[in-house]
Write a structure and sequence with these properties.
Chain A: InterPro entries: AA_ABC_transptr_permease_3TM, ArtM/GltK/GlnP/TcyL/YhdX-like, MetI-like, MetI-like_sf. Chain A: Pfam families: BPD_transp_1 (PF00528). Chain A: This is Glutamine transport system permease protein. Chain A: It comes from Companilactobacillus tucceti DSM 20183. The complex is a heterodimer of chains A (about 210) and B (about 280). Chain A is mainly alpha-helical and about 210 residues long. Chain A has a single domain, classed as Orthogonal Bundle (MetI-like fold), CATH 1.10.3720. In chain A, about 85% of the residues lie in helices and about 0% in strands. In chain A, helix 2 packs antiparallel against helix 9, helix 4 packs across helix 5 and helix 9 runs antiparallel to helix 10. The longest helix of chain A has about 35 residues. In chain B, helix 3 packs antiparallel against helix 10. Chain B folds into two domains: about 150 residues, 3-Layer(aba) Sandwich (D-Maltodextrin-Binding Protein, domain 2), CATH 3.40.190.10; about 80 residues, Periplasmic binding protein-like II (D-Maltodextrin-Binding Protein, domain 2), CATH 3.40.190.10. A five-stranded mixed beta sheet of chain B has the order 5-1-6-13-7. In chain B, strands 10-9-11-8-12 form a five-stranded mixed beta sheet, sandwiched between helices. Classes of the chains: A mainly alpha (about 210), B alpha/beta (about 280). Chains A and B meet through helix 4 and helix 9 of A and strand 10 and helix 7 of B.
């Protein structure tokens, strides 16, 4: 296994790099987009709630691979040329943002309604109350499920392998099929994923203890 | 709780004993295949089911059709006599060697190149087809041969040696490896790459189904296909080789080539005729 790792070191590392990059980009944007749609879902306006709901229900209930394939194969045909890495990261962002929206919304809903009412009574606008009073409390509550979403996001990034996104899984497939060392290759790939996900897992636990 | 533990132990040991007892009888793969096949008057072939012109299951009648299918039938008749039956089992590039090893199929005839790495695991018959790697492009593309691929993006399938070959001949080409050939073609169609590369026969099948695409530049490697036979089946291998030789000598082989590859744009069938 050591020999396999040494022989294919540059492939593994470049795959690792692309996986990390895709995960970071997708995490950043899905957190923003997810939070926005979560707020839409709890807004007083009915139109906003419908828009939020439709977005979440569509992208939460379509397989990630289908969304990604759509961006990889259909969008370049009619709209704009995007490569596998971009298509995979976009798919990952949209898919995860739907789950994050649901998570954050549940957090917002579990903050006592009196908090919002009191803020509005003080003369704050809806957005001010959200930004300064409700969201900070909501995020504290949803740290554990949010951590789950982040870990899922990293693991789901293996979808890039199906659209030639040069990620860890893609390199793993290529190495396994040229060296015939299938078992060892996927063990190494699994270990590389652990290198990314375990720190996230521990950091989220730490955050939970610190803030709760 | 303690009682439960004993029951578990009992069941586990029972299973172990049964497994060991099962090992007593001879596994299928180490029996003499030629004798068995003569008794049952049937050879079981592992074939592709998703490759036009080579091995494809026709959705209309559920029958396997293609060059390899016809060749397997012809060889079966030579080995077992006129009434010999050929039975077909669908395999994929990943499953074919394991299925041969555990005795589910007697021989593989499924676009398998004779490679040194594979020879370590199984035996090969004499080559039955001189395939070679080629390129598929959209009609009107500026790519005319493998040299033009430098700086371009090429799609292929993961697990094929086509990727290594391209990197040797056109080092500046960017290769995208997709899960299978159908997806590699879809990626080419949606503009993710400018060309697709793999064995010419596979590309020929795709070109027939997708009229906007054609093969260019001929072949730039030689990948002779062989029939895969399990290790230790010397008699069976000899019989297959003899059958294959007779099929070539009586002209059946060339007839089959003309039948399947006589009319593919950009594919020179004369390259693969046997005299």
């Amino acid at each position: 296994m050591i020999k396999l790792l040494v022989d294919n070191w540059s492939s593994f590392i470049s795959g690792f790099g692309w996986t990390v990059l895709s995960s970071i980009v997708a995490l950043f944007f899905s957190l923003i987009i997810g939070s926005l749609f979560a707020i839409l879902e709890v807004m007083p306006s009915k139109v906003a709630r419908v828009i939020g709901n439709v977005y979440v229900e569509i992208f939460r209930n379509i397989p990630l691979l289908v969304i990604t394939m759509f961006f990889y194969l259909v969008i370049p045909l009619y709209v704009v040329k995007i490569n596998g890495f971009t298509a995979g990261t976009i798919g990952l962002t949209i898919y995860t943002s739907a789950f994050i929206a649901e998570t954050v919304r549940s957090g917002i809903n579990s903050v006592d309604i009196g908090q919002m009412e009191a803020s509005r009574a003080q003369g704050m606008t809806f957005w001010q109350a959200m930004r300064y009073i409700v969201l900070p409390q909501a995020f504290k509550l949803v740290i554990p499920p949010l951590g789950n979403q982040f870990i899922n996001l990293v693991k789901n990034s293996s979808v890039l392998a199906f659209v030639a996104g040069f990620d860890l899984m893609y390199q793993g497939n290529a190495i396994a099929s040229t060296t015939f060392e299938t078992v060892n290759t996927y063990i190494v790939v699994g270990l590389f994923y652990l290198v990314i996900t375990l720190p996230i897992s521990y950091y989220m636990q730490h955050l939970e203890r610190k803030l709760a | 709780m303690k009682k439960f533990k004993y029951v578990t132990l009992l069941i586990t040991s029972l299973l172990l004993v049964l497994t060991l007892a099962g090992c007593g009888s001879q596994p299928l793969s180490s029996q003499n295949i030629l004798e068995n096949d003569k008794k049952s008057n049937t050879i079981t072939w592992g074939v592709k089911a998703d490759q036009k012109l080579i091995g494809l299951i026709d959705v209309k009648d559920g029958q396997e059709k293609g060059f390899e299918i016809d060749l397997a039938k012809a060889i079966t008749k030579k080995v077992l006599g006129k009434d010999g039956k050929a039975k077909f089992v669908t395999v994929t590039s990943q499953s074919r060697i394991p299925l041969l090893k555990n005795g589910n199929i007697d021989a593989i005839i499924a676009t398998m190149s004779i490679l040194p790495d594979r020879k370590k695991v199984i035996d090969f018959s004499d080559s039955y087809f001189d395939a070679g790697q080629s390129i598929l492009v959209k009609k009107g593309s500026s790519i005319k041969s493998v040299k033009d691929l430098n700086g371009k993006t090429v799609t292929s399938a993961v697990g094929s040696n086509s990727v290594d070959n391209i990197q040797k001949i056109a080092p500046k080409a960017r290769v995208l490896q997709l899960p299978d050939f159908a997806q590699a073609l879809t990626a080419l169609k949606s503009g993710q790459g400018e060309a697709m590369t793999t064995d010419n026969v596979i590309l020929a099948g795709l070109a027939v189904e997708n009229p906007g695409y054609k093969l260019v530049g001929g072949t730039f490697t030689t990948e002779p296909y062989g029939i895969g036979i399990n290790k230790g089946q010397g008699d069976f291998k000899k019989a297959i080789n003899k059958g294959l030789k007779e099929v070539i000598e009586d002209g059946t082989y060339n007839k089959l080539i003309m039948k399947w590859f006589g009319n593919v744009p950009g594919f020179d069938y004369k390259e693969v005729l046997r005299k």
